[in-house]
Write a structure and sequence with these properties.
By secondary structure, the chain is an all-alpha fold. Helices cover 63% and strands 0% of the residues.
């Protein structure tokens, strides 16, 4: 069954006849954890890590050339909610467990395994 498109005025009239009201509100914005993570990673460095470099690192488990300090800063100084959020956000593309495991590989290589492990486990 195909229903014709209704204009907003017809919808409002129909809702009034039913004793209902239409309220429009903006959709809640979800935080952009990749950008937040980059803000933490790049805060102390003149040369900035890119979004692509961060995502490739988390997907592959390999640290891009010249980005060890950036990733160490991210893993040691970012709030736990940002670390969990970026792992979840990047995990949408390649699987959450894979990104989580690769984040732990990077953390171990940078000497931050204990901190990152506790963060990802919610402690």
């Amino acid at each position: 069954m195909h229903l014709p498109d209704l204009g907003i005025r017809k919808v409002q009239s129909l809702l009034e006849a039913l004793g209902l009201d239409l309220h429009v509100r903006p959709l809640p914005r979800r935080p952009d954890y990749v950008r937040m993570a980059l803000g933490s990673a790049n805060s102390s460095y003149r040369e900035k890590m890119t979004e692509g470099e961060l995502m490739r690192a988390l997907i592959s488990g390999y640290i891009p050339r010249g980005r060890r300090p950036h990733l160490r800063t991210l893993l040691e100084e970012a709030p736990p909610s940002v670390l969990r959020g970026v792992v979840h956000e990047v995990g949408k593309y390649m699987g959450h467990e894979r990104v989580r495991a690769n984040t732990l590989v990077i953390a171990e290589a940078l000497g931050a395994l204990r901190t990152v492990k506790a963060c990802l486990e919610g402690r």
